[in-house]
Amino acid sequence: MTSTQPRSDKTILFERFFDLYYPSVYKAIGRLTGIADKEEVEALTINVFADLWMHSDVLFSDERPTAFLYKVVLRHVFGYLKKQGFDEHILQLQNTLLIDPAHYTPLEEPSKESLIIRWLHKLKGQRKP
Predict the structure, then answer these.
(1) CA 60 – CA 24 distance, rounded (Å)
(2) How many CB atoms are closer than 10 A to CB 14?
(3) Staple 74 to which of 81, 104, 108, 123, CB 3.0 to 4.6 Å?
(4) What is the pLDDT of residues 20-54, one digit of tens each?
């Protein structure tokens, strides 16, 4: 039995958003996590879009929905990496990505060692030759 109710504007807007950004999100997740298994990348990508759908009010009220998309992707990527125990990969991404760490942390309280490593990386980047 199919529904004869028209789709809402929100549903249509989200479908367009999904069609436009799914390939980019899929590629970004694969690259950021290093996952080789296509089904695992797809599952994580679907989780991102499910999260976006649940927060579509924020997604479509934001002036820059792509910035919100980026934040959600990062939360899922870092959550996956943390669950897998890839702490070094997490640190590498945190030192590389162009986003305030407050958007994807705290996944947990950082260890003193990780804080020292981040501080040393920042100092290294500030030194003049």
Answers:
(1) 19
(2) 18
(3) 104
(4) 999 999 999 999 999 999 999 999 999 999 999 99
pLDDT in tens, 60-82: 886 788 888 988 999 999 999 99
| Long-range contacts, 12-15 (Cβ 8 Å, 24+) | 13/60, 14/52, 14/53, 14/56, 14/59
What mean pLDDT is predicted for residues 110-128?
Answer: 55
Buried b (16+ CB within 10 A) or exposed e, 58-96: ebeeeeebeebbbbbbbbbbbebbeeeebeebbbebbee
| C-alpha closest to that of 73 among 100, 42, 47 | 47
Residues near 21 by Cβ (< 8 Å), separated by ≥ 6?
Answer: 66, 69
Structure tokens at 73: 């992707």
**Contact (Cβ atoms closer than 8 angstroms) between residue 107 and residue 83:** no
Contacts of 119 (CB under 8 A, 6+ apart): none
Question: Please, are residues 29 and 41 in contact by the beta-carbon 8 Å criterion?
Answer: yes
Claim: this prediction has a pTM higher than 0.90: no
